[in-house]
Predict the 3D structure of the following.
Amino acid sequence: MAKTTFDDIKRALWDGANTFRDNIDASNYKDYVLSMFFVKYLSDTFDESVKKLEKDYSGIRLERQIKNLPFFLEKEFTFDYLLDNQFAPDLGTKISEALTGIESSNAILSGIFRGIDFNSESNLGKKEQKNPILRNLLNDFADLDLHPSNIEVNEHQVPADIVGDAYEYMIGEFATLAGKKAGSFFTPQKVSEIMAQIVSPVENDRVYDPTCGSGSLLIRAARKGGFDKVQMYGQEVNSSAISMARMNMFIHGIQDAKIAWGDTLANPQHLDSDGNLMKFDCIVANMPFSKAKWAEGFNPGGEVSADEENEKTKKGKKKEFKMEAGLDRWHRFDIGVPPASKGDWAFLLHMIASMSGNGRVAAVAPHGVLFRGTSEGRIRQSIIDKNLIDAVIGLPENIFYGTSIPACIIVFRKGRSSTDVLFVDASKEFKKEKAKNILRDEDVERIVDTYRAYRNGQNAENDKYSHVASLDEIKDNGYNLNIPRYVDTFEEEEIIDIDAVNAEIADLKEQIATVEAEMDKYLKELGLKQ
């Protein structure tokens, strides 16, 4: 039997996507395709584990050994059972019951299919419309063999690499299909690679993503230190993204990652035994850009009855909630409260407060955090005075899925020995591909090499690309970190040779006169001109 390749898995995933295309929105059908793929992965993995045990055990001993496996599937929860029942009138119910059964019988998988309903009429329609779609989806994966021993790998890979990377690939493709709705769950791989190399985890590090989306950025960062050598933590507010992240981790063979659901700002889940924010050595994040109403979770007012609301309306305009530093018991906003309409610095301050004594942060942010004034300006000045900003790296426009605006990577670091800050303008370093710009391997390498040279005390100055600014220089710029203030990318226009241009114009006129004379000659011969 032929081995299953990366391309085979990609093809099956695309078939699943095409089954839903034109039926429901891409931002929704990713949940169904990736969940069914995950059920197929679990089923084939469990089947292979059982067959291995059957070679050495039987009867009660076999049953005991099966129960000791990392997870257990009843027959009714397996992909093969669902495939055998593909013509059942209640197919959507059977699939949803299988997902519920997988969760309830395996603590390690509890809640992994959070909110994914294969019986949803609002998404999939009534059974006459829904059942053919679900039947096709099952058949899209029917011939895909995901038994670990049948995955084609080279000497440097394990099956989890191939299956996990294919899963991540498809998350990226769904991000492309979903357009603006995708920014919250996927970071372009090349950007993730830059951030992973910047924070550079080592053995025993805690690696954290406070807005982890599908978990791909967290996985790429943790891989640098070794999945079995670092501890992984993430939090995400979107339930669909949480499901993707947990499946993503599991398929990659990561079963001890702590992925929490909730509002990272108002309700951080990763706390120490004293209820303080847990500290992390490496933090990576592609946070929501300029999130409005970011502080609503801190509102102590709670819900009010309809009568109370009407009474308030009668008395006049309802008083809007105003965030205050004292409402945050973790004191993240003591140096300043970000504006209600822009939560960028709220997330950045959370990351800074979560840094260990050796902590380093690489966070994607809109350029506005570098120069906006009022409360953001005061926060930025305080962070600079505390010597926490290590580097600012400008990226090309139109490389993210949620927005076309250019963004930057801000690097924070504890325990810095210098007060200098590296500025990199990589905004012109990209390749245009279809509707998006993409970073190439050489673009990633140049950014990382420049940053490493700077960290190692080597020359990191590159004309029109990078500059190491002193604290005095930054102060002279009013604590404004806008990259063009430090990296001059202005290109002088070539001086025009007027004499040469006039000579070229004269030559063109002469050529035109010659052509017109020839045209007149032919027109006269044809009798079309006197």
